[in-house]
Design goal:
By secondary structure, this protein is α+β, with helices and mostly antiparallel strands. Helices cover 25% and strands 25% of the residues. Strands 1-2-3-5-4 form a 5-stranded antiparallel sheet. The longest helix has 19 residues. The N and C termini lie far apart (55 Å).
Amino acid sequence: MSDSSREVSEDAAGFAPAADDRIRLRLTADLANLPVVRSVAGTVAAIADYDIDAISDLKLAVDEVCSTLITRAAPGAALECSFAGNGDEVCFEAAVTVRGEEQVRVDTASFGWRVLTTLTDRVDTWASPDDGGLPTLHISIARARAAGGQHEQDPRERRPGQRAG
């Protein structure tokens, strides 16, 4: 049987094979699992050739997203995360089933939200029902190689006497 004739099916844990190049994690929504997600974030950023500051920023932003979700999670809920490269940026999305409808509202005036908007180029949050109709909170972020999407100009494109930056 050739690969092209195989059907995509879920395994015993309910995971379907990846149809794209995203890195996906599914962990118990527990603060003890933050180092795992943070480590993957650092590795993804390093592979994408981010500088040390951008790697640190992405790790901190991912930590903030996951902490926000975990503290709202329903008992026994899974934290689902995915990393994807999109040109010169890394996109991260995480979601968790929350304890109730009131938990899907994120305070965009909070310190944590300000951290996210400072460390990333894009932040978004939304709610949707899971397969069982329970409220699920999603947060996504995107971080370019250089802060604010500002990439260093190629030295060959600079006018004589123009400085980098």
